[in-house]
Amino acid sequence: MIKSLRGMNDILSEDYERFTYFINTATHVAQKYGFHFIETPLLEETALFKRSVGASSDIVGKEMYQFIDKGKNDVCLRPEGTAGVVRAFIQKKLDKAGGVHRFFYHGSMFRYERPQKGRLRQFHQFGVESFGIDSVYEDANMIMMVADILVACGIGYRLQLNSLGDANCMPAYRESLVHFVTQCKDEVCEDCIRRLDLNPIRVLDCKNEKCQSLYVNAPKLINNLCQACENDFTKLKQILDTNNINYEIDTNLVRGLDYYSKTAFEFVSDNIGSQSAIAGGGRYDRLVEFLDGRPTPAVGFAMGIERLMELIQMPEVKKEGYYIGALDEDAIDLVVQLAQKKRKTDKVNIEYKAKNFKNHMKAVDKVNAKYFCIIGSNEIQSGTIIVKDIENKTEEKITIQEF
RNA sequence: GUGGGAUUAGCUCAGUUGGUUAGAGCACUGGUUUGUGGUGCCGGGGGUCGCGGGUUCGAAUCCCGUAUCCCACCCCA
């Protein structure tokens, strides 16, 4: 038997219901905030991700589905959504057009990781990107949008917040952190040694207890922000306060992708295991420029749909539509005709086999129909049928023409 | 990529120190004596015990390999 590849799942039946319910809910919220749908290719030039996500990240360093295509192009399946949207934004010259551009997207992402609960090799994200606004109000807008989507899906969360600084304050901070960690280099874990070269900020969220105890006195980014970043962060907290969004400051929160600056946030759930981040995002004012566009401030987020699907509170399924059953073989033709007519407006379930009344009732329950009609010789002779309302236990006799 | 646990029917799981024809519940299917309320009752189909080797008179059971899932790390949404 041929099986799906490792870490790649089919979505069907109840999973599909949850999946589309989430997409529809999130789409609805995004549209209310004035965002427009964008679809970008699953396959992009590898350089796009190397330059945006950053070669230092594991995503680019070892998790990409990368290959040379028949035209000798170095391409890869997208590991995340932002880079493609930014590429499209620049390619359509919207950076030069100026103004505000707001997009949302959803679709498959690919990362060659070891699969685990909440971590697949092909997974789905819903994401949002906003271009052209440097006001921190837009950062808050993003966070409130995520909160709205989660609330609409009945999902509880914790919001973690940090500021990563900008080109003014981040480099100096990074240097002082490297200096600090270098001094206790002999005592930190191997991973942290590796991080020191690759992405020093990441040592801050090392899970090793010994490392954490060493870093207690490490310089904190949040205490080393320049005035502009400091002001924005203060303002952001105030906006969230006045809009009743609860958050916790996590000075160790760093984003895995290199392009983030200033606002960084992560929504986490305590109910889905160790892969607990259900949404993450932040500001990336320099990315458009990195990808050869005109400098454009931007902010966005992405949500992991598979992780959210476990948490979604689905609305109760209501009885819907008709079930029409035949009592004998002669009635089946009429059942099919009536179903065709009714399907112009309603969902109709039928079977192509005659059954007794009791078995039809079982079928009515199975398909969760609201109305039940039975067709036999009596109905064919009289030209009338009885429509039973299963919920209210009432019934109505009408002619076949009226049906 | 590292370490650990699991894998038996469509699903959730039993299966004794290795010993007849591998079971249950749910689901599916048929009947319940032939046209008015489904939940009852009786029956039926369905398994290469993940896959491949090995040990043994005999393997779902023990050993080795491998695949997948799960847990932790790592990473991240």
Strand order of the largest sheet: 1-5-6-11-10-9-7-8
Q: How far apart are the first and last residues' alpha carbons, in Å?
A: 48 Å
Instruction: Tell me the overall shape.
Output: elongated
Radius of gyration: 28 Å
Number of strands: 16
- What's the number of helices? 15
CATH topology of the largest domain: BirA Bifunctional Protein, domain 2
What structural class do you assign from the helix and strand content? Answer: alpha+beta
CATH homologous superfamily heading of the largest domain: Bira Bifunctional Protein, Domain 2
Q: What helical percentage do the residues reach?
A: 25-40%
Can you tell me the CATH class of the largest domain?
Answer: Alpha Beta
Write down the domain tally.
2
Model regions low in confidence, pLDDT < 50 over at least 5 residues: none
Beta-strand percent range: 15-25%
Describe, in plain words, how this protein is organized in 3D:
It is a single chain. This protein is α+β, with helices and mostly antiparallel strands and about 400 residues long. The protein has 2 domains: about 15-170 and about 225-310, BirA Bifunctional Protein, domain 2, CATH 3.30.930; about 320-400, Rossmann fold (3-Layer(aba) Sandwich), CATH 3.40.50.800. It has helices at about 15-30, 45-55, 60, 80-90, 95, 135-150, 170-185, 190-200, 210-215, 225-240, 285-290, 305-310, 330-340, 355-365, 375-380, and strands at about 35, 45, 65-70, 75, 100-110, 120-130, 160-165, 250, 260-270, 275-285, 300-305, 320-325, 350, 370-375, 385-390, 395-400. It has an 8-stranded mixed beta sheet with strand order 1-5-6-11-10-9-7-8, sandwiched between helices. The chain has a 5-stranded mixed beta sheet with strand order 13-12-14-15-16, with helices on both faces. Helix 13 (about 330-340) links the parallel strand 12 and strand 13 (about 350). The chain binds one RNA strand of 77 nucleotides through helix 3, strand 6, strand 10, strand 11 and helix 12.
